[in-house]
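Q: My collaborator sent me two sequences in one message, no labels, and asked for predicted structures for both. Can we handle them in order? The first one she listed is below.
A: Yes, handling them in the order given. First sequence, followed by its structure tokens:
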Amino acid sequence: MTTQTIPERKDIPDDHKWDLVPLFASGEEWEKWMAEVENQIDSYADYKGRLKDSVDILKAALDFHLSLHRRLERLYTYAHLKSDEDKSNQFYLGLHQRAVSLHVRASESASFLTPEIQAIPEDQMQTFLDDDSLAEYKFYLEKILRYKRHTRSETVEQVLAMSQEMAQTPSQIFGQLDNVDLNFGYLEDQNGAKIELSHGNFSTFLISPDRDLRKKAFDQYYQAYQDHQHTLASTLSHSIKKDLFYSRVRHFDNCRASALFGDRIPESVYDNLIETVKNNLKPLFKYLDFRKQALALSELHFYDTYVPIVGSDAFNIPYEEAVDIGTQALRPLGDEYVNGLKKGLLGGWVDRYENRGKRSGAYSAGSYDSPPYILLNYESRNINSVYTLLHEGGHSMHSFYSNHHQPYVYHGYTIFVAEVASTFNENLLSRYLLDFYKNDPARTAYILNREIDNLRATLFRQTMFAEFEKLTHRIAEDNEPLTLDVITATYRELLETYFGESLVLDPPLCLECLRIPHFYSAFYVYKYATGISAAIALADKVVNEGASARTAYLNFLKLGGSKYPLDELQDAGVDMQSPEPIEQAIQYFSDLVDRLMKAYQAL
């Protein structure tokens, strides 16, 4: 019997790792920058109490602040990327903690900026805003002024800045427990190989045709969470209480209003998503019932919801081949986009494969002065990895365009629009694969099945997550306890609503809410659902309308954070304050289900 273990970091070839040299060539260079930035923090005092004196002083203060923040961003990016390579590496964990601490100290020193800017009399501030020397900072300043009624005194702002590092405690505890300390044990696959179960390969086990193996992986995976359920519930509860503290201290009506305020997203957009999805669950129930029938099951369990319905040949797509597939799929976006992405994916942007201690999942991250790096845990046997590659590639190209077309002050786009750029790429990939396999009925059905499951996970499931966040925060806001029983009971009620009678709800599934990292970034997940809805609408435009729609979309990627997200999407051609994009996405899902049922009958 063979045993397959997760490799150590040192055993991963260098050309499969990201190249962080553009950030810092060595640890010594990082330390030099660290010392320089530490010494510069005291210079904030040169501007304190003087911002109202003249437009020149205000501009100089903003120039200094953003220049320092730019250097901090670079230091932090390097430290957190190195730490995520191996979460058990104490040296890089230390670098990460030092970078966070430095950021907190800088924020503390800069805490006077916002209240001083907001204290400038309106007529004087309007004169400043009309001055050509501040033209670049006009939108930036307008956003600060918008927070005026939610900004506290200079002393309170200083204390709030000092609290930032402490406020990360629930997230840090969850991250260390989830990525380092949890042990999921080993499983024996259908070929007799003994494989260590991990975050990275859990989804691979769930698509296995061996139902006993799927069930065993599900039970074994969730047993680790059950063994730590009280700790995890307490950690999540205190993360929610942290959100409540900050919303109350800044005089917001509720936690959600606080989270949405920065992007100027009305709470009605959030509620519109939940209401529209919940009113249109029939296509989801129809699909789950068909899945049960196609798999010849008397009961459908969670561990039956990812295995392909169609028994086609297993995909085995090496990383380099996945890059080639992506290159072809994204052709509607033009040569500049495609060639830029391909060069990055093969040229040092990506940390490709899982190693022991590596952060689970995937993300795109970088700084204004670095490539837009991508962390993956690529698995060639799982076609979802190809989708993940293009998903994160969408984020990275969004960063690439934004960094090259916006000044530093506006290079950072919001998450609300970020999830459009990523899921847009996934949609084009599905369109390409369905066309590529159009003469292969089994593969066509397979891709249809996969696209349906992706929409189910991103549109329906993330909306359920969004409602969970809304409900749990409301419990805290009502000063009610958030115990393990309350948290899991709330989640079970949502599972019953969103899956109806189509799915048997095994007790461990109620613990799913304890393993979602995004719950530690409150009111984040709804953006996946709104993002994929906008992406479907925009992809349809680009494919069917050609050059004009492509130009509008690429211009959208170049906007960075120079406008509010709803305005940026309006420019691209979609109105997210309307239920129409959500309804269009659900109709797209329904049409795919009908296509799959028809394709399945033809096999």
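Q: And the one she listed second?
A: Here it is, processed independently of the first:
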Amino acid sequence: MSLPRHWLCFSLVLVAVAGCPRRFDPRANEIRSQNPQADAEFRAAQQQFQRGDLDAAKTAVQHIQTAYPPSEPLVGWARLLEARVARAQQQLDRARQLLQPLVDGPTEDSLRSAARFELGLLAHRRGDAEEALRQLAGFSSQIVEGDDATELHAVLADCYRQTGQARDALREYELFFSRAHPVEQAYVRTQVIPLISSLPPAAQTDARTRFGLVDPPKSDKAEAPASLRIGLALPLRGKDRALGERVLRGALWAAKTADPAGSAPSPATPPASRTAVELIVRDTGSAPESAAQAAADLAREGAQALVAPPTRAEAAAITRAAASGRLATLQLVTPSSAAAATDTRDYHLLYSNEERAQRLAKELRAAGLATVAVLAPASSYGQAMTRAFVDALQGTSVRVLGQITFPANTTTFTAQAKQILDLGPQALFVPATATQLELVAGQLAALGALSTQRVQTRSTEPTIQLLLSTAEGLSARLLTAAGRYLQGALLAPVALAGLPLVGGDTRFSGYSDDGGGVPGVLDAIGYDAVQTLRAACAEPMAKGQACTTELLTSHLQRVQLEGATGTIAFQPDGHRRGQPLLVRIEGAALRVLR
């Protein structure tokens, strides 16, 4: 079975290497033990790792290393698998400690090669490009064709780029480009443009051709199409790398799907979809000081607007740098409801968490129910959401019967469900993750406390007539696993992407097939960021005007469009106008409430 390819994460599940020593094949047939028990235990650990059950996989491989003698071939491979588990759990120092002896010690060749490969990927994850090159460069000409080869070339290209080796970077990017999905190719183009500019003029045209960057021929009879240059400063290395990658995928998808290459827009195409977009991407390295430099680089390269990182410290650095350069900035972090306006060019794409809680409280008041209870995590998030919800009910006829808390990592809600049952509220507010909501709903249904469950288990009428939740990280799993308990529930998620909606949603149709994976909240935010800036430039460009930063900033005040985060419009202070997104569970789908 082939594993899904994560085109920027580069997290490979390597298996044992066999075959000709001149070729390196991470997916060659695995080594087998003569001990059936050891073999079975190792295969089970691999399966647990591939399913994402990291703690169980770690326990299993540690047992193999202690239960069997060093002469058992799978002991070394178990150590390698433990290193992969450690890397997946962000325990990078531990992963290196496990791998280094396999590379330096008296290890058989196939295991040593696999360990070197993993050590190189680990070095790239740690941001050590030079070490990654020392470990991985030799594999470029040896690795067999496949997804692993594509990811290797992408890693090497990034490392060569970071170390200023433009020609080597372009060579590896070209190998990556030739094997990549269209969305991946769009990312590659954003990276090679500055590299190509460093080549001698005679070599630049050929390089641009190889990456599909040939300038269109100019015509005296028609003006060149107007374009919008959007700068994205995102963490593509370091601890926040996964966040930046998801935002980038959504942004690339918006730029690609809203302005299909080679096709002319029809008269029915919305103006926001007819504005050509060029994305300029710079890596912040998960560091505020690098974020400020990235903002300066993007301004120098002609970006009319910046999209800030989805992390607070980096976003603050971007805001300061963009303000000094007088660039419009679109913020992707959740703002504080009490935050004052910092700059007239600073716009917030998301509502505050407190606003989402208040929207749910408003819906509760409209439902005409008399009592409610709150079940929230004992965290700063849970406290803030509880306070916002309860404050929004002050002076109304709705009475709060109780505020129950639970540890943030709770996975069993038996005790809390019984407390709720004893309180007997007509409504329940659960500001928590979608996974926790699923567990809460299942436990309440087992006790017969939900009016939405199909089978009554108590002789009395269930008390909870309405369940409200922020459902953080909402995915289709909630509907399939607990939808039968949650019919009619009201949710206020940050965004909708890849979820079944009543009436359908085509925004991310084909996204997975095009290399984007399963879309989530961050993909949706990246998508909305590009579409919002495109919409702001649509009117001046339709009039033949260049979309300067000044025009873009003023037109952002007039923008109104339907996005994956709801209806997008802004107040004069740059915060979102209107009400946060609200959906109701109906059958196996979600209905968006206006």
